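Annex B. Sample input.
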Amino acid sequence: MAYSEHMAETMRADLGVEPGLSEKKMFGGLAFLLHGNMVCGVMKEGAMYRPGKEREAAALAAGARPLSFTGRSMRGMVEIDEAAFEDAALRARLTEYALANAASLPPK
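Annex B, continued. Sample output.
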């Protein structure tokens, strides 16, 4: 398995029952989308969140690091490792930022 099912279940619980929320296997992991826009996801070594460019600094200050699949950081995206994922307050803050970003985007 490319990602932890336990982490996926935890992320589902963090997201709650949000109208328009869906799941999609992507990049060897599992992404959660709101009306087709990526919110967050689990991957082999942790989790990623899409707080957007305007909330990225706050997410980094909270304890996330820039997301880098290819060695280059991806603006508006952050990640946390499995140890940081155990911090429920951090996950809640990143989930809030990512849901707010996705809700601000037009549906796909």
